[in-house]
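Sequence, please.
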């Protein structure tokens, strides 16, 4: 698996807006910023456009916000799988990690696991 770039794709950046005010986003340091001053971390090239000033509708959003902030501040490696943000059990996190380490998955191991867990063959053992 190739290491994702920390750079946000230009095509994507041209189409994204701040979830606070709909303003365009520009690169700012290791993240993105709108003209209204809202800033957003980028993890492995993926802008984390989650708002931290509203109630979250799913629990893993909190873990995603915390992990993105930690990566942005350098407290957490950017190239990890970040399985703690998936809202899955310890055993399921182990399975995702094993799948990634095996190098046998033709697609991203997190995506492969989550698709399997929601609509594909059962990966629970
Ligand atoms: Zn904004």
């Amino acid at each position: 698996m190739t290491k994702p770039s920390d750079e946000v794709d230009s095509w994507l950046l041209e189409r994204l807006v701040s979830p606070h005010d709909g303003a365009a986003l520009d690169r700012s340091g290791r993240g993105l910023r709108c003209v209204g001053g809202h800033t957003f971390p980028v993890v492995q090239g993926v802008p984390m456009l989650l708002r931290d000033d509203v109630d979250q509708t799913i629990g893993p959003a909190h873990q995603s916000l915390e992990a993105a902030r930690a990566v942005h501040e350098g407290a957490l490696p950017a190239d990890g799988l970040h399985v703690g943000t998936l809202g899955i059990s310890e055993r399921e996190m182990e399975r995702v990690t094993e799948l990634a380490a095996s190098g046998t998955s033709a697609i991203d191991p997190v995506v492969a696991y989550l698709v399997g867990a929601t609509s594909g063959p059962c990966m629970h053992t």
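The longest strand covers residues 39-43.
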